[in-house]
């Protein structure tokens, strides 16, 4: 089924024409509201046309008024409540020895469906590991991988090519952040689990290599997930070294059952936080251009 507009119930208000971000709708010579055939392929399926139509005449392929659209909630969080919520969220790295129910993780991930995205949000896949033993099984391989980071940075030739391949931003993050931490043995398991921090659950955002906008989408989804975790009384934080290890170490990829053709973008550890206090952060300088 293609996109179409039901002429029998269309009110001719033309609101759908005004809101379409890709100019896919027009009034034809007979003043009928129609989708432009040669532009229909660039439809984003944002469904703004369906959402604004007072008579529910607009139909996007694969989208239903009864199942996919809903009225906006009447209640909006005020500014103070919103800032209080954000200020109370912290990146949690100390968890209680308490499993997280699957149902709670499912609720957390439902927030992702409402996140903004670039293109093709369906390209991002989500894998949940709610199994502490399986997470622990990956740790020796990840710790060894981090030792390899130290060797790479300290080898001028390897370091040169790594910078070329990874790009300046990623390389500087490795060199200035991960390398000093790894150099002093922070990720050695003899000091405890400094990788997954004892978290009982792990969520991995991944996608087929080269998939449209999958990196940005995964990072946005991860952000929504950790905010949702906070609202559910859980603690969470992003751990990029786990996703990096998945991409480089076959054993880690296999443990977490990430498809070979996919690359992991971000991982989020989840659990019940041990502490409740937040830390004040200094606002970054803002440039106002008028």
SSE map:
Blueprint: E1 4-5, H1 15-19, E2 25-27, E3 33-35, H2 48-52, E4 58-59, H3 65-68, H4 79-88, H5 102-110, E5 124-129, H6 132-154, H7 156-166, H8 168-183, E6 201-208, H9 214-231, E7 235-238, H10 240-248, H11 250-255, E8 262-271
Antiparallel strand pairs: 1-4, 2-3, 5-6, 6-8, 7-8
Helix pairs in contact: 5-9, 6-8, 6-10, 7-8
Features:
alpha+beta; Alpha-Beta Plaits; NADH Oxidase; 2 domains; 40% helix
In spatial order, strands of the major sheet run 5-6-8-7
Low-confidence stretches: none
CATH superfamily membership of the largest domain: NADH Oxidase
Distance between the termini: 48 Å
Number of H/I helices? 11
The total strand number stands at 8
Oligomer: single chain
Q: Into which percentage range does the β-strand content fall?
A: 5-15%
**Mean pLDDT, nearest integer?**
93
Total domains, how many?
2
Radius of gyration: 24 Å
CATH architecture of the largest domain: 3-Layer(aba) Sandwich
Fraction in helix: 40-55%
Shape, principal axes of CA atoms: elongated
Largest sheet, in brief, is:
4 strands, antiparallel
The CATH topology of the largest domain is: NADH Oxidase
List the secondary-structure elements in sequence, H or E.
Answer: EHEEHEHHHEHHHEHEHHE
The CATH first-level class of the largest domain comes to Alpha Beta
